Backbone:
């Protein structure tokens, strides 16, 4: 079976095509703001302007590999969570494409897709997933369905990093730039370490880091102190989920997972607990269409299909709302 998936919940407009065996094609047309952060309406405008050309490119490239439009078996799309205006563009394109090709439509939960593509590519069985992206930060594991064992009480870690970066005059996305600065940091300054039960929070940390920067502490040390504090919070909750559930695999998902310091901290924790650490390649770590295509395929193979009437966007769609019928 061949599945085409459309992602566009935030910055990355992306179309992926997969079979049960592998990723056949992945094409991205990201929205990069000239200044400031991601503006939902501007991102949606970008997606609607670029969608037609991106799909055309995908179909042309598919033809080169011997796959015709009618060979596509399902059209999957990111139904939520995400930015409303962006989701609407994605859902509209997916409906049109499914109707035009006469193929079934499958609405996919974006967070679930991050987890499932990681499990698939890394061959992980039952991992605790640390999902860290711009808008989301969650510790997820499966017990029957997928459950959220810990999550941010305010903003996502990626958003927190981007806010601090912007404040220090760095361009969006701030993640890689903060990482580069942090590598040169020498002194650690204490910042609020906020873990409440199994949840964490980042907005107070951002405010405190901004104050540190304002007080004349070098940007390198601010970035370093921020990363050490925020990542320790994430790793602590991941470790506690691992211990509580008695599991032995950790999977990283989401764009912030590209950060080498976060990965290093997770690796050390996993080594201490004799757990395996899994990370998909970078192009499948952040938002991408292949993860939507793959998860659509998985869901469809269990009899799941989304009628046009049920294809309304779900900006607050949670992973624990999804019935999980596959292994
Ligand atoms: P996603 O929403 O999953 O595509 O992830 C996007 C987020 O990942 C943005 O907030 C980026 O700043 C962040 N990001 C990307 N690369 C890195 C990095 N190397 N370190 C930290 N954050 C990163
Ligand atoms: Mg994401």
Residues:
């Amino acid at each position: 079976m061949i599945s085409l998936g459309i992602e566009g919940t935030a910055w990355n407009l992306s179309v992926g095509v997969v079979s049960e065996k592998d990723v056949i094609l992945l094409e991205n047309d990201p929205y990069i703001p000239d200044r400031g952060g991601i503006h939902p309406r501007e991102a949606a405008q970008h997606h609607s302007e670029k969608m037609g050309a991106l799909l055309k490119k995908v179909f042309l490239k598919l033809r080169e590999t011997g796959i015709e439009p009618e060979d596509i078996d399902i059209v999957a799309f990111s139904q939520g969570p995400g930015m409303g205006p962006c989701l609407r563009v994605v859902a509209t394109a997916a409906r049109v494409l499914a109707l035009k090709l006469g193929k079934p439509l499958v609405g996919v939960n974006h967070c679930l897709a991050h987890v499932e593509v990681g499990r698939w590519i890394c061959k992980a069985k039952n991992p605790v997933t640390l999902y860290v992206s711009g808008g989301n930060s969650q510790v997820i594991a499966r017990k029957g369905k997928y459950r959220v064992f810990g999550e941010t009480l305010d903003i996502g870690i990626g958003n927190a990093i981007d806010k601090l970066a912007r404040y220090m005059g760095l361009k969006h996305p701030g993640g890689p730039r903060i990482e580069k600065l942090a590598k040169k940091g020498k002194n650690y300054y204490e910042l609020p370490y906020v873990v409440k039960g199994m949840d964490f929070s980042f907005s107070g940390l951002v405010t405190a880091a901004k104050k540190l920067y304002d007080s004349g502490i070098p940007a390198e040390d601010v970035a370093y102190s921020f990363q050490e504090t925020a990542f320790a919070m994430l790793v602590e909750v991941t470790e506690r989920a691992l211990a509580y559930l008695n599991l032995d695999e950790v999977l990283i998902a989401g764009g912030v997972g590209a950060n080498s310091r976060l990965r290093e901290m997770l690796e050390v924790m996993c080594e201490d607990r004799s757990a395996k650490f899994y990370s998909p390649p970078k192009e499948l770590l952040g938002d991408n269409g292949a993860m939507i295509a793959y998860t659509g395929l998985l869901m469809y193979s269990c009899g799941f299909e989304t009628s046009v009437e049920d294809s309304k966007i779900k900006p607050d769609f949670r992973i624990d709302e999804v019935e999980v019928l596959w292994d």
About this structure: Residues 10, 12, 133-134, 158, 161-162, 173-176, 179, 254-256, 258-259, 286-287 surround adenosine monophosphate (ligand 1) (CB under 6 Å). The first strand starts at residue 3 and ends at 7.
